[in-house]
Amino acid sequence: MVIYVHIPFCIRKCYYCDFLSGTYNEEKKSAYVISLLNEIEYYGKKYGKSGRDERINSVFFGGGTPSVLDGDVLCEILLKIKKEFSLEHTAEITVECNPGTVDRDKLSKYKEAGVNRLSIGLQSADDKELERIGRIHSYKQFLDAYNMARQLGFENINIDLMSALPGQTMESYKDTIKKILQLKPEHISAYSLILEEGTCLYDTVNRQLEQGVDTGLPDEDTEREMYYLTGRMLKEAGYNRYEISNYAKSGYECRHNTAYWRREDYIGMGIGAASCVDDVRTKNIDNIDKYIEIFDNIEGVRKNGALDNDETNHLTREDKMAEFMFLGLRMTEGISKVEFLKCFECDYDTIYGGVTKRLIEQRLLKENEKSQQISLTELGLDVSNSVMSEFLL
Ligand code: SF4
Question: Mind listing the pLDDT tens digit for each residue in 362-384?
């Protein structure tokens, strides 16, 4: 089982961001943390030491920007999790950091409390590009944070990158990748910018289009070239692409995300966080004030829970089979027919034989006859969403 903790605070909203995050005052942050500690206790009684005592092999602080919190506060949350749950001694404990929000003191505290993986959001090594998407940090600030983390002994660091940014060119993107590779992080996540409705960037681009002004966004062909360049350069540098957008040195694949893709049980705490245990998927309410109110005291939690009742979903056998496919196919190793049989007591080919045969003929899927693994081809990876939609039952 893995645990996700949502910290919805940011210094300022990035222009492209549609995550559940915002800028809040100190009072709200403190109230949120109290409620979060109560929620940890609540789940601890169900699945932790005083309940089912599940083994936890990953804790992931995501957001928002978890590193916005004072170092002591984040460590207090982690210590509470350790108190309530049985963490495996090799558990991966990740904190997402924004380079504009960390210093030596904060990182040392993380280290001391047992954080063993950092995920640093850089996005681009070009300050102008960072500015255009509303990031609060410069490349220099990122470098300082990265070097500091290395000096303090963090041996597992992810760097987030983005392509197809306004004003980004093939040259500047190549330069960003080169700079990152020189730093030798253990893991790189690389995504293309997606313009999400309701974001500041979405509105700006639409206004520019209406006025006939150049948006500065790379055209579709350049965007594709950037995507291929990522794969080529990272492969040459010894990174294994183990998922559509994730690359790692051998043995450094993110355990947390891999658990999601393998359909292991997970608990999510904090606003908007999703959980899936015993094939029942739930989601916490999105509203921070309601969340604080409900979890304000542990008795309140026992009575009410913090679930969004519209979002409790008992997965049917068909849902589970479809999920097995489209989550499993995100990973380049793909899915195992043997595992499918074990999970569903039913032969893979009876359910998906037809569609698999067709997609293999279209060179979108491949099958390793010996290991009985089905996975996406290079071509399939390019159009993964449409391939995966074929597996809905
Ligand atoms: S730091 Fe992350 S979560 Fe916060 S606004 Fe920027 S992209 Fe969104």
Answer: 999 999 999 999 999 999 999 99
> Which residues, other chains included, contact 308 with Cβ-Cβ below 8 Å and sequence gap of 6+?
282, 283, 284, 285, 286
| Residue among 149, 153, 54 nearest 97 (CA) | 149
Half-sphere exposure of 72 (CA within 13 A, CB side): 1
Q: Which domains does the chain have, with CATH numbers?
A: 2-260 (3.20.20.70), 317-389 (1.10.10)
Q: What is the pLDDT of residues 223-232, one digit of tens each?
A: 999 999 999 9
Measure the CA angle with vertex 1, ends 118 and 239; round to 5°: 40
Ligand 1: which atom is nearest the Cα of residue 63?
3
CA nearest ligand 1 atom 6, residue? 14
Q: Which atom of ligand 1 is the closest one to the Cα of 96?
A: 2
pLDDT by residue (tens digit) across 217-271?
A: 999 999 999 999 999 999 999 999 999 999 999 999 999 999 999 999 999 999 9
The residue to which tokens 């399939």 are assigned? 380
Contacts of 97 (CB under 8 A, 6+ apart): 65, 66, 67, 118, 119, 120, 121, 145
| Cβ(101) – ligand 1 distance below 6 Å | no
